[in-house]
């Protein structure tokens, strides 16, 4: 009897699963979604992962210019603080409100968990089939929007740079690099942590000891090295930063580096779902995609001129796998903290020299 009941229960579960409608790809144009969004009231709240307060200014200005009358508040903070805030909002609201409508983060481990908790709205923006399937959730719960990375760009201030270029990480151990490196604490940013994991796997822990002995200036945030090199008129270089100031240039490195799909999602609790869809669609549309990629890697195949999946020694999915194993992440973080100490300084998003 019991078996029969279980089989019946199982059968109805199967039919439920089969009956659940698959998310279809958006067929409306941006302007049609815009029309739907204009019927909603309220401000779209976007949690934008980054480590420079101004890093969402460009996208805010472009979105507002393209869609007048839509209220949007895109705020930048470290991804690791956004997920805490979002989870706390969810907790204190008794699971009714995530506090934000959209999140765009590097904390890739959050998305599958939020999906499993039933908190994400499935949405497949129009260019869905152009996005590498490795970078999306197949149900549309979250989507890789941009490809970011560390280690590939080596930034310096050409006005003060007077040292021959390093060919690989071993070169930074040479005497000419003494007191000239500005690097982000790997124990403060999981993407930088993953880069350092790759470096340790290639060169061993002895390398880290020798690097530290070079008198590295360790800072919080991945914009900070670039800002220090710019505003502090420092001769030196960083491989954990990007050009966050006009007078800083980047050169491609020749050693290990990492990339990941910066991923976006819409929370089911949003009171402005059409506006949220408009924002995700805008980010994935050709215009913003080309701006964001700047001729480099992208999650959309037709925008990804360099071919992120064709780079020797680079696995663009490995950071997501690393992030999913929190025990491993914590073990690596504390390995570095043992050597470097706790990250010193305030929230780097508000960094000023
Ligand atoms: C925008 O959102 C941030 C983060 O939630 C908040 O601190 C700020 O007050 C908001 N700004 C406006 C104008 O609502
Ligand atoms: C600026 O450079 C000086 C000399 O290299 C250094 O001592 C100081 O810590 C730097 N300031 C910042 C904010 O990085």
TrEMBL record:
Pfam families: SBP_bac_6 (PF13343). This is Uncharacterized protein. The lineage of its organism: Eukaryota, Fungi, Dikarya, Basidiomycota, Agaricomycotina. The keyword Signal applies. It comes from Agrocybe chaxingu. SUPFAM superfamilies: Periplasmic binding protein-like II (SSF53850). Residues 1-19 form the signal peptide. Keywords: Signal.
């Amino acid at each position: 009897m019991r078996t029969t009941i279980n089989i019946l229960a199982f059968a109805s579960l199967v039919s439920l699963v089969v009956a659940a409608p698959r998310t279809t790809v958006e067929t409306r144009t941006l302007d049609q979604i815009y029309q739907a969004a204009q019927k909603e009231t309220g401000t779209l709240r976007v949690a934008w992962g980054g480590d420079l307060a101004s890093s969402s200014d460009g996208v805010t200005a472009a979105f507002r210019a393209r869609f007048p009358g839509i209220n949007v508040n895109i705020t930048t903070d470290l991804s690791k603080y956004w997920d805490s805030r979002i989870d706390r909002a969810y907790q204190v609201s008794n699971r009714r409100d995530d506090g934000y409508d959209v999140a765009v983060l590097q904390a890739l481990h959050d998305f599958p968990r939020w999906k499993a908790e039933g908190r994400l709205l499935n949405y497949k923006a129009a260019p869905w089939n152009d996005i590498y399937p490795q970078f999306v959730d197949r149900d549309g719960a979250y989507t890789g929007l941009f490809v970011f990375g560390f280690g590939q760009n080596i930034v310096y201030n050409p006005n003060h740079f007077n040292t021959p270029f390093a060919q690989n990480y071993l070169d930074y151990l040479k005497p000419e690099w003494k007191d000239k490196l500005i690097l982000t604490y790997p124990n403060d940013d999981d993407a930088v942590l993953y880069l350092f994991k790759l470096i340790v796997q290639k060169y061993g822990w002895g390398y880290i000891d020798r690097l530290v002995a070079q008198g590295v200036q360790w800072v919080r945030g991945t914009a900070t090295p670039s800002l220090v090199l710019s505003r502090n008129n420092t001769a030196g270089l960083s491989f954990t930063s990007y050009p966050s100031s006009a007078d800083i240039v980047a050169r491609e490195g020749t050693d290990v580096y990492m990339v990941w799909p910066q991923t976006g999602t819409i929370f089911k609790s949003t009171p402005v779902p059409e506006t949220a869809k408009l924002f995700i669609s805008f980010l994935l549309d050709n215009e913003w995609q080309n701006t964001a990629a700047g001729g480099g890697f992208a999650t959309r195949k037709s925008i990804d001129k360099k071919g992120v999946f064709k780079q020797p020694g680079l696995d663009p999915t490995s950071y997501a796998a690393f992030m999913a194993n929190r025990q491993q992440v914590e073990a690596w973080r504390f390995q570095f903290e043992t050597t470097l100490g706790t990250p010193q300084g305030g929230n780097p998003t508000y960094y000023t020299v």
